[in-house]
Hints:
Elements: H1 4-9, E1 13-15, E2 21-26, H2 40-59, E3 62-68, E4 82-92, E5 96-106, E6 113-126, E7 137-139, H3 143-167, H4 175-182
Parallel strand pairs: 1-7
Antiparallel strand pairs: 2-4, 3-6, 4-5, 5-6
The structure holds coenzyme A.
Amino acid sequence: xxxxxxxxxxxxxxxxxxxxxxxxxxxxxxxxxxxxxxxxxxxxxxxxxxxxxxxxxxxxxxxxxxxxxxxxxxxxxxxxxxxxxxxxxxxxxxxxxxxxxxxxxxxxxxxxxxxxxxxxxxxxxxxxxxxxxxxxxxxxxxxxxxxxxxxxxxxxxxxxxxxxxxxxxxxxxxxxxxxxxxxxxxxxxxxxxxxx
Length: 196
Ligand SMILES: CC(C)(COP(=O)(O)OP(=O)(O)OC[C@H]1O[C@@H](n2cnc3c(N)ncnc32)[C@H](O)[C@@H]1OP(=O)(O)O)[C@@H](O)C(=O)NCCC(=O)NCCS
């Protein structure tokens, strides 16, 4: 069996184009909510699917979703529209990779296109023993790919810092201090723990 150091020396590289994936799906009435728009969960499921295909192709291995960067729904998607999800590898770490996904919705009658969201899935490659396994390096072939790689790396650094700050959140032990923090918030304390 190869050690991590041995694997490092034999790293292969794959270009972004090797795993670029486009998934197009018709939005049928069964996907809609009571307001007639497509459920956000349907779009999330399609994003997870396309992220998996793209990641597994680059990794040459089974992959799992580790995390999803903020998903903002910029515009509603209507029944009858064609939704296309364009996925490409933005960044590779050691065993993880970041898949960037741009989602476009198209009205086939008017040819009108709208950008409904962009998001980033972090996927981790797994070996046959379900252990994280190294992924191939990424060959960047144009400026856009270099920009996306650097942006993804920055997001990882920012997330690390954010996690550190979240872990550092202190809930005051004294009721009086808690009461001060709640001032101006739309809540009321309905138990005796925090005294006036
Ligand atoms: C994600 C998972 C593989 C991480 O496993 P782990 O034993 O913590 O592995 P490690 O700490 O060695 O991390 C492996 C890689 O994942 C990355 N990673 C781990 N947790 C992460 C997270 N929450 N967000 C982003 N990246 C993460 C690490 O940075 C590391 O990347 P690198 O090798 O490129 O440096 C593991 O927690 C898992 O299998 N989770 C369940 C995944 C799943 O079932 N997804 C579907 C959910 S519906």
